């Protein structure tokens, strides 16, 4: 079981929680992929504590920790509405299991790592759900600050929040279960603010090292190379395990895959040139992904069958690539597990190229989609983002009689030129065998531009 990350504040509070053998005063909270902890304070003037979950559009593996108070960095991000959180009162369970797992920290780690199984046992502790509101992305809970235990004593409450539904499953990965414990040892707060962290995808198109940031990129020609960069953050709990009914350890996640497909024919896949973490210095994991990630590209004979075999997915086998890590079989090699350990909680950028080929039609819109597919132990999810659609250029030339525009004249030759930054350049069409004018076909594989007309 992977350890959660405890802040200094949390460790200080936990250090004093066992003044009596079972006198629980506080517990930490794991927040999504970042594994950050928050300790909330009980307001002594009220019987209930207000807990606000602020859902934000996050696209990187920020390590900023929840403090229970407002954090400017998160407040400046766009809110995400329509996300449902369901709380569970887990105070009694943590109280009963602190000795079994040797500490409250270990008990909470076990609870969150095995939540898919433990939620059945704790179904009776489920409370009313709330949905993040429009414009604010905030879900507000007013929950009892203290809980009456079976031994007749009151203890400061401990709540687990699960993201149980979302209107944005196709855009953002869901947050992991998050625990918030209330503590009288901390300064009283009127309300507790927590930022459940999940992340979305970002995809950009680059041409000649320039980002195309609008959705109207025009006049692309045959032979022109396009560079795409897709960014996502790997879940912090991707390697979490749980104990099954036979007390065998199993991975919670069943698989994690990365898929990219062009929307139309007319491009050749050049290759993935980099899979890099955003940490400094950058670490390129391309070789490891190619070796251990069951790599398949549209240049491979198995490409069409690979796409056809994906569940709940439908796309034509145009240019693209696919990496997949199968955890469900519980047979990861040491090398694969080591690679997943290196990318756990990390933000990855996939860089890859395609080239417009002779199959592209004039004035054709060609898009590109990047998908992250995973099964979190409960359901299959597909999160995706697209890049600006490109439009191919194209020109038709017809020689007609000056006396009668209905009369078309044969044998004409045309010179195609363009003015680029004040310089006139002339086109030379390059043809593959069998696609040139001698064969009656005019499908160039690329265009070379020269400054001299007779080049």
From TrEMBL:
Q: Which residues form the Gram-positive pilin subunit D1 N-terminal domain?
A: 47-199
Mind telling me which InterPro entries this protein's record contains?
GramPos_pilinD1_N, Ig-like_fold
Alphabetized, the UniProt keywords read: Signal
The lineage's top-level taxon is: Bacteria
Question: Quick one: signal sequence residues?
Answer: 1-28
Task: Give a yes or no for keyword Acetylation in this entry.
Answer: no
Question: What name appears for this protein in its UniProt entry?
Answer: Pilin N-terminal domain-containing protein
Its organism's taxonomic lineage begins at:
Bacteria, Bacillati, Bacillota, Bacilli, Lactobacillales
